[in-house]
Hints:
By secondary structure, this protein is of the alpha/beta class.
Amino acid sequence: MAQVADRADVSAGASVGAPTKARPVILATLSVRIDPSAERMAFDSALDGGSLLIIANMIAMRTYPMTMILAPEYLTLPHEEDLDAVRATAERAVARGIKTELLRITARHPLSALIDLIREREAGLLVLGPDLGRTSRWHLRLAARRVRRDAPCLVWIAPDG
Length: 161
């Protein structure tokens, strides 16, 4: 019969298993500002787990061949993303004492790049939270389906979870 260890039976100095490291929480958006409920979920999860918060702004790369050659820093125009609002989210996380990284990822296939990021960083939770006022429900539904199918971690999708 299997032995079950009860927490009350384990002395304070002994450990039941190898200590686990806190896996990061990824808060992702699709080049728009972040939904407040997604921000709350990601912040609370990172604080509870004592883990790193990675805010990933996923931007679809437009096919402008000459721009890619001559000036790749201008591939994304200011009106094509809400960078100031995403930076403000990162600043609020830092103000709450959460270790935070802000990533701007430009890719032809942003959802594939997001899945790659999740695998590379070994994330424990993905919070997909683009603001519904600035992205279509259809686009969010497609992104949610893809992320739920391919992400190797827990997934929470705003606004309902």
